[in-house]
């Protein structure tokens, strides 16, 4: 885990974010239900930190990331991004700080001026690169879109510089993606993301498709680049060991909601939400002689996001569920400085 960074201003504020995908059925293809992939997510992201977003498959992590960059148009909620650009004038503000822009309310054309400040690293390095383009063209494409004032020679110079920054050589610029390994392809994706000098990078499970030895190299590269360029990361993953290593704070998601948010060290040492405790108990330890706490086995299956339980989405599998847990979604409460949990009965489990 990286050291806790000094208190900084918020770069991103997410308030009650929702992303529902409509389901149509019947003879007349009428709207019959909604898949509630993201159902009221709220958090703040500080400048220069890494926020880990974890949870099991289908909990809404990747959908949240895509909403933050407006690849998915949110159904409701607010995504306030503290930009350094004046969208109307099209230039960088240096003396006047503009008001935060609500990304959730922008269409594709309105979003374009801010895309250079928010970039994404995708999960699959094989599918995220155009196989018909050379590495040079792949990295140069965002430059030609967002920095048209640069000459061709300046763009080429920056492409070479970026390739060297991510551990590739200039001689590889004329090659195609199929000529690279998975780890090298992900390095190309990182170079492409950094081309426009972004402030926020959303990494959607960037190492899950790579070998373990390569994972460490890519994670270390991302940390070095963050320190050098002052980047802010949202790191989406299901591998808790990786998230613990890179994150300053961690948000745990379950069925479209954030159930716990805390400093990484605090979350791993004293998890409070019953779902977070179950996740932590499942982490294997490399030393077989180390005595672990008893494994918490959750009963039942994860409910469908199309038919979420009323109230707390976790109550159907929760070992400490109470009768009123079905009444309403529990709010996030701050139980300690910068430690939030969406469970009013979290203390009960300590008495059992």
Your description of this structure?
Helix 3 (about 135-145) packs across helix 4 (about 150-165), helix 3 (about 135-145) packs parallel to helix 5 (about 180-195) and helix 5 packs parallel to helix 6. This protein has about 350 residues and is an alpha/beta fold. Strand 9, helix 6 and strand 10 (about 230-235) form a beta-alpha-beta unit. The protein is built from 9 helices and 14 strands. The chain is globular and about 65 Å long. The protein has helices spanning about 60-70, 110-115, 135-145, 150-165, 180-195, 210-230, 240-245, 265-270, 275-280; strands at about 10-25, 30-45, 50-55, 75-80, 85, 90, 100, 120, 200-205, 230-235, 250-255, 255-265, 335, 340. The strands form 3 sheets. An 8-stranded mixed beta sheet has the order 8-9-10-3-11-12-14-13, with helices on both faces. A 4-stranded antiparallel beta sheet has the order 2-1-4-7. A two-stranded antiparallel sheet has the order 5-6. The model is unreliable at about 1-5 (pLDDT under 50).
Condensed summary:
By secondary structure, the chain is of the alpha/beta class. The protein is built from 9 helices and 14 strands.
């Amino acid at each position: 885990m990286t050291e806790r960074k000094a208190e900084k201003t918020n770069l991103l504020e997410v308030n009650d974010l929702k992303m529902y995908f409509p389901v149509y059925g019947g003879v007349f293809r009428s709207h019959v239900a909604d898949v509630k992939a993201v159902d009221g997510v709220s958090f703040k992201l500080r400048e220069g930190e890494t926020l880990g977003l974890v949870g099991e498959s289908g909990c809404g992590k990747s959908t949240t990331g895509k909403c933050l960059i407006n690849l998915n148009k949110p159904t409701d909620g607010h995504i306030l991004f503290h930009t350094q650009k004046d969208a109307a004038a099209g230039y960088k503000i240096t003396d006047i700080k503009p008001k935060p822009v609500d990304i959730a309310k922008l269409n594709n054309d309105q979003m374009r001026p801010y895309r250079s400040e928010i970039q994404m690293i995708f999960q699959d390095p094989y599918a995220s690169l155009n196989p018909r383009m050379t590495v040079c063209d792949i990295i140069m494409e965002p430059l030609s879109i967002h920095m048209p004032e640069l000459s061709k020679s300046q763009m080429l110079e920056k492409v070479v510089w970026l390739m060297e920054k991510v551990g590739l050589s200039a001689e590889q610029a004329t090659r195609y993606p199929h000529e690279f390994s998975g780890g090298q392809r992900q390095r190309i994706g990182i170079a492409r993301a950094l081309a426009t000098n972004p402030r926020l990078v959303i990494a959607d499970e960037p190492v899950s498709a790579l070998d373990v030895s390569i994972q460490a190299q890519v994670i270390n590269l991302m940390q070095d680049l963050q320190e050098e360029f002052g980047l802010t990361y949202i790191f989406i993953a299901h591998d808790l060991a990786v998230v613990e290593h890179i994150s300053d704070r961690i948000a745990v998601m379950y069925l479209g909601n954030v159930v716990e948010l805390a400093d990484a060290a605090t979350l791993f040492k004293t998890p409070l939400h019953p779902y977070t405790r179950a996740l932590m108990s499942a982490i294997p330890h490399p030393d077989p002689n180390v005595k672990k706490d008893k494994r918490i086995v959750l009963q039942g299956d994860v409910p469908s996001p199309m038919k979420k339980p009323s109230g707390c989405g976790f109550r159907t599998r929760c070992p400490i569920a109470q009768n009123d847990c079905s009444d309403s979604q529990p709010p996030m409460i701050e139980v300690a400085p910068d430690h939030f949990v969406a469970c009013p009965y979290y203390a009960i489990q300590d008495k059992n």
